[in-house]
Design a protein that fits this description.
The protein is α/β, with parallel strands linked by helices and 311 residues long. It has eleven helices and ten strands. β3, α6 and β4 form a beta-alpha-beta unit. The termini are far apart.
């Protein structure tokens, strides 16, 4: 194409060429090949060549030097390439920001069923009240889920002190708890043998039906304690519900059950508890580093734990 022919069909000054022509030009200028640009844009080589000719005609200037089996940018082509490349990058960045702002905000957490039902869920409205735009997804399970594989932001893990990963939320103490009516029948430690033991079966303690009682029994020197009968549950919250209903004595995990004790629905007939040397720890996933809401949620957990300990 001769320059004089290009000038004859020139686009009015200030009017932008069609975007599809600029996209084809950017690909051809970057690849210095109409054939490679055509493959990238899913067009034919002749279609890209025609678009470049149309762009040159609209600008009234040659953008490429057509050499034997090679392309080279003219001075005008270099100027346009820099401008088009910069503009397309700005468009890509703006598009990514718009998409990110439109994406739903979510915090995904995994923890034990007992922690979820007895400590987290009763307090959760305080977080959602201050973060109404954030969806919270709670996966309550005894399975130790891989945070990154399961696309989770954080976990509250129950682990022995010294083996927990991440900041400690709080340490646990244990103490037998029962309903006020049942507590009235207890005068001394030996009276425990007349009551029903409420216990939880854990997958890794199938041969130890009192695994949840062991820390307290050890401190009290009662490893051989025998109760009138035993009710076993697969979920700790169910054992707690049975204790509230007056069906027996449950090992109380504090501070998980602190509000039930404060409300008088459960009482500690034998006084102080014992440290279980276990606690709850906040473990963050790699994806949480880019999720400000997940970081806010972790801080909220710490604030709630500190507030509970003060009261």
């Amino acid at each position: 194409m001769h320059p004089e022919n290009a000038k004859a069909s020139r686009t009015p000054s200030g009017e932008l060429p069609p975007l599809e022509l600029l996209r084809s030009f950017e690909a051809a200028a970057r690849q210095l090949s109409f054939t490679l640009a055509a493959g990238e844009l899913h067009l034919t080589q002749s279609a890209v060549s025609r678009q470049i000719q149309q762009l040159e005609a609209s600008l009234g200037v040659l953008l490429f030097e057509r050499r034997h089996r090679a392309l080279a940018l003219t001075e005008a082509g270099g100027v346009l390439q820099r401008a088009v490349t910069d503009s397309l990058e700005r468009l890509r960045d703006a598009t990514a920001r718009v998409r990110a702002s439109a994406a739903p905000r979510q915090v995904a957490i995994t923890t034990t069923p007992g922690f979820a039902s007895l400590w987290l869920i009763p307090k959760l409205a305080r977080f959602t009240g201050t973060h109404p735009q954030v969806d919270v997804r709670v996966s309550a399970t005894l399975d130790v889920l891989d945070l990154d594989v399961s696309r989770l932001d954080l976990a509250v893990r129950f682990a022995p002190i010294g083996r927990g990963v991440g900041p400690a939320l709080f340490e646990e103490s244990v103490i037998p708890l029962c309903s006020p009516q049942l507590a009235a029948s207890l005068r001394e430690l030996s009276d425990f043998s007349r009551l029903t033991l409420l216990t939880v079966e854990y997958p890794d303690h199938s041969e130890a039906p009192t695994a949840d009682w062991e820390p307290w029994l050890k401190v009290m020197g009662l490893q051989d304690l025998r109760m009138k009968s035993t009710l076993r549950f697969t979920q700790y919250a169910d054992a707690v519900a049975a204790a509230v209903a007056g069906q027996g004595v449950v090992i109380g995990r504090l501070p998980l059950l602190r509000e039930l004790v404060r409300d008088g629905r459960l009482v500690a007939p034998l006084g102080e508890g014992a440290a279980s040397h276990r606690g709850y720890f906040i473990e963050m996933s790699r994806r949480a580093a880019s999720n400000r809401d997940a970081q806010d949620f972790a801080q909220w957990l710490r604030d709630e734990a500190e507030a509970a300990q003060r009261t």
